[in-house]
Amino acid sequence: DSVFANIAQGPEDPILGVTVAYNKDTSPNKLNLGVGAYRTEEGKPLVLNVVRKAEKLLVNDQSRVKEYLPITGLADFNKCSAKLIFGADSPAIQENRVTTVQSLSGTGSLRVGAEFLAKHYHQRTIYIPRPTWGNHPKVFSIAGLAVEYYRYYEPNTRGLDFQGLLEDLKSAPAGAIVLLHACAHNPTGVDPTLEQWEQIRQLMRSQGLLPFFDSAYQGFASGSLDADAQPIRLFVADGGECFAAQSYAKNMGLYGERVGALSIVCKSADVASRVESQLKLVIRPMYSNPPIHGPSIVATILKDRDMYNEWTVELKAMADRIITMRQQLFDALTAKGTPGDWSHIIKQIGMFTFTGLNSEQVAFMTKEYHVYMTSDGRISMAGLSSRTVPHLADAIHAAVT
Ligand code: PMP
């Protein structure tokens, strides 16, 4: 008998499991709005032209070898990543108060940050928004942090519960870590305004709470890399500490290359350098050092003005297509006279719309219309096209009437 004979069947990941179910469906009308990956108007995955261009340069460069990177990753990539998120002229970078390490996309960056905090930070409690990306509680608790929630979403308005958020952060213990979605909150698509961010910053600084930003969608929310980084830059501008986990999965379409970075902004260069030495001790026993291909693509693009500009144009086109899909879905429901207020579809931003549909309605849409999405009613707008909007509108209409 196998030594694993009694092992229990594990549950499917709630987000990735949607695609597993979708793949089994044989209907020609099936629609996958579960996974958060960009699709073209034709429903195809997209490799950016500028990425193809960078890859050609890399492949043709005979001087490039496949040696291991340092534990902290590709130095050029780390430098460019810090500038991208904190701003090219960020005083914190100029004062060498920022340590940046390359990690395995957004998830790996969050995990390295979590492991570092569990080992070296005195307050091992992290507050995450309710709701949040389903992997957040697991990443932080498995690293040894206690996970608590702060109010974020108000179902009645399908907007931000700003008072609840402030109250919950006010009653958090001094020093607690607070996870903040930098922009395009997943799954709700609801972000604080800049004025609200400023209030959050003031409250957090006065309570001594430690900000940990998850930036998985820079450029994807508004189409502007700078605008989407504003909340983080507000926090860094006050001179205080700040964590930022960056992912290039969405904004450069590098999903499977697993390219990301963790930056820790410290109060002095001396502290930053000791923090980095400890990050290396966290990373070494996890995976020794990160992969080389993905960050080389990113560094090639970010270091070249023309390629950088080309990237921003392609990124804006992706963001604009998503915004167009929002409008088309809203218009389709309005034209059908579907009961209810659907204005949140055009108010929310980023990759997802939090439709407000409940799990029974979602199950109905999957069964009757072959529309796949997470059971919380989140749909990926990037998975929609002009061709499929009417089918989704039919499904929603039938689910709510
Ligand atoms: N944070 C959030 C909020 C996300 O939505 C995602 C991707 N779904 C990630 C982090 C991490 O993604 P990745 O590891 O692919 O960069």
Distance between the termini: 54 Å
What small ligands are held by the chains? 4'-deoxy-4'-aminopyridoxal-5'-phosphate
The arrangement of helices and strands along the chain is: HEHHHEHEHEEEHEHEHEEHHHHEHEEH
Strand content: 5-15%
Main sheet specs: 7 strands, mixed
Organism: Papaver atlanticum
Protein name: Aspartate aminotransferase
Keywords: Aminotransferase, Pyridoxal phosphate, Transferase
GO molecular function, one term: pyridoxal phosphate binding
Provide an overview of this structure:
- There is one protein chain.
- The chain is an alpha/beta fold and 401 residues long.
- The chain is 46% helix and 14% strand.
- It is built from 15 helices and 13 strands.
- It has helices at residues 16-24, 49-60, 75-86, 91-94, 105-120, 136-142, 162-170, 194-207, 225-237, 269-287, 293-303, 305-336, 344-347, 359-369, 389-400; strands spanning 31-32, 98-104, 125-130, 146-151, 153-154, 159-160, 177-181, 210-215, 242-247, 259-265, 352-354, 371-372, 378-380.
- It has a seven-stranded mixed β-sheet with strand order 2-10-9-8-7-3-4, sandwiched between helices. Strands 1-12 form a two-stranded parallel sheet.
- The longest helix is centred in the C-terminal third of the chain and has 32 residues, at 305-336.
- The chain is globular.
